[in-house]
Amino acid sequence: MKTFDPVTEIRRKADHWCLSLAQSWSLGPVITQVVDVMDELLSNALQHGKGQVRVDLQVRGDRVWIGVRDEGPGPMRRAGGWFPPLGDAHGLGRVAQASHVWGVKRHDGHGATVWSELDITN
After folding, report:
1. How does residue 94 score in pLDDT terms, banded at 50, 70 and 90?
2. Which helix (H) or strand (E) holds 47?
3. Given a cut of 70, is residue 112 above it in pLDDT?
4. Homologous superfamily of 2-119
5. For labelling, which of 7, 12, 99, 108 has a CA lying 20 to 30 Å from the CA of 52?
6. What is the spatial distance between Cα 78 and Cα 102, in angstroms, rounded to a whole number?
7. CA-CA distances (angstroms) from residue 35 to 3, 29, 30, 64?
8. How far apart are CA 69 and CA 71, in angstroms?
9. Residue by residue, what is the 3-state secondary structure of 5-44?
């Protein structure tokens, strides 16, 4: 796990860290998808969250787990439907489309982790 403070170069540093770690796991073409999903989650945390941002990547069997935590409340469900709407082509919609499964874990008033699992067997 790596912790980042919200500064101007956070995305570049986080992308470099994520890419280096994913390459060390020899994930092949899935590396691009891992970095893209991490970048979307990180962008969302920087834009809508608050406080420190923590990025975590783990290989769990045949999946890569990506989690981005900040000290904000996390994304909310919209009235009458899921957030993001199905078919949304940006932000968490892109995460939802790329992920085998994704979700939000709230930490009892101490922030939230938005996470994704990507299948690495393809």
Report:
1. confident
2. helix 30-48
3. yes
4. Histidine kinase-like ATPase, C-terminal domain (3.30.565.10)
5. 99
6. 17
7. 17, 11, 9, 11
8. 7
9. CCCCCHHHHHHHHHHHHHHHCCCCCHHHHHHHHHHHHHHH
The pLDDT of residue 86 is 53
The pairing of strands 53-60 and 63-70 is antiparallel
Q: Establish whether the linkage from the previous residue to 84 is cis, with ω within 30° of 0.
A: yes
Q: What is the pLDDT of residues 58-82, one digit of tens each?
A: 999 999 999 999 988 777 666 555 5
CB 115 within 8 A of CB 69: no
Tokens representing 58 are 């783990």
**pTM for the complete prediction?**
0.83
Please, is 80 exposed, middle or buried when counting C-beta atoms within 10 Å of its C-beta (0-12, 13-18, 19+)?
A: exposed
